[in-house]
Write a structure and sequence with these properties.
mainly alpha, ABC transporter involved in vitamin B12 uptake, BtuC, two-stranded antiparallel ribbon, globular
């Protein structure tokens, strides 16, 4: 029994995103029982693949889920958010395209292009992290610099063009690997999740990040390099931006620096918040942020399925997200905890009286 209580106590943070997804699932099942049906079909390439709204949700949220993972680390370590992730993803995608267009697209050139765009994104991550950790600038203000000029840098990298890239390799990365019915971006998200899980399992990154976020001075007194942890968090977020940028390029087959992952930074912050993570830093649950990303994508898909005009989708999303965030706020959680405590006390008194 103790083990059971311990498990639920450790994962209580996931209740809000899980309830959000469950509420959307129940709503859609009442609205359209076939909403989450999955079927096999043959795509334009002749491959048998899985299709349906559920697959579309998991696939469409891939870039957001990866960014939410990195955003969780930055939020936990710095107590603030990076609003330049969309712009940095555009820069990384631009570098990716630049390298691919320099010659024939082969598996080797794709790997080299990806590694190079990761390096570039990490350098920009160091820039953001230095402003935050060394110069003590609030994260949202520090990353406003790259948010403002990042897409212009992406535009400049490819000579002011919106280049296209066509290759079976990129098609496999952005859609389906021949013989595999699951969209590749979903597999990439799963791989990123496994990598983070292994890193947290075999290193002290989670512990140090939470320690710095909770009390930087105490962490420093215990020998933790707070500046290094914050910069490292921004570097890891840079890699996540590179992964998301490459997925977006491979999915579309071209790069439009103005629209690629536009405004995704706001959804990434919301995913972290919906996941129950404190936006002021400290303890975090990365699985909660990933679930938050899927909750946002489920809501978006639901609104489009209801034929809500695209211009009104953001308004509806804002209303629902406000409700979710308020329900998951510390004040509501404390009130709910007190109510549960009173109910338990009343039951105990009733048993004693009996």
């Amino acid at each position: 029994m103790k083990k059971k209580n311990g498990f639920f106590a450790r994962n209580a943070q996931l209740i809000v995103p899980l309830l959000s997804i469950l509420a959307l699932i129940v709503f859609n099942l009442f609205r359209d029982p076939s909403f989450f049906s999955i079927s096999l079909s043959v795509n334009n390439s002749g491959n048998t693949v899985l299709t349906g709204n559920l697959i579309s949700i998991l696939n469409g949220a891939s870039e957001l889920a990866v960014l939410a993972m990195g955003m969780t680390l930055v939020t936990a370590a710095s107590g603030g958010q990076d609003i330049s992730v969309g712009a940095l993803a555009a820069i990384a995608g631009s570098v990716f395209v630049k390298v691919l267009r320099a010659g024939e697209i082969t598996p080797v050139t794709v790997v080299v292009a990806f590694l190079l765009c990761c390096v570039v994104a990490m350098i920009f991550g160091v820039f953001n992290g230095t402003l935050v950790a060394v110069f003590k600038i609030q994260p949202m203000i520090a990353t406003l610099v790259l948010y403002t000029c990042g897409r212009s840098i992406a535009y400049w990298i490819n000579g002011g063009a919106s280049p296209t890239v066509a290759s079976p390799i990129l098609t496999a990365i952005g859609s389906f690997i021949p013989g595999v019915p699951i969209p590749t971006p979903i597999l990439i998200v799963a791989l990123c999740g496994v990598i983070f899980a292994l890193v947290f399992r075999f290193t002290t990154l989670r512990l140090y990040t939470q320690a710095v976020g909770i009390n930087q001075r105490a962490a420093r007194l215990n020998g933790i390099n707070a500046v290094g942890i914050k910069i490292l968090a921004f570097m890891i977020l840079g890699i996540c931006c590179a992964v998301s940028g490459c997925i977006a390029v491979a999915r579309l087959g071209y790069l439009n620096h103005e629209t690629v992952l536009l405004e995704i930074e706001m959804d990434a912050i919301l995913a972290v918040a919906i996941g129950g993570n404190a936006l002021g830093g400290g303890r975090f649950k990365m699985a909660g942020s990933v679930l938050g990303a899927y909750a946002i994508q489920t809501l978006t898909t639901t609104l489009y399925a209801m034929r809500v005009p695209s211009t009104a989708v953001k308004s509806y999303k804002a209303i629902v997200i406000i409700l979710i965030v308020v329900i998951g706020s510390p004040m509501v959680k404390e009130a709910f905890g007190r109510m549960v405590g009173r109910i338990k006390a009343a039951r105990a008194d009733g048993k004693e009286a009996a």
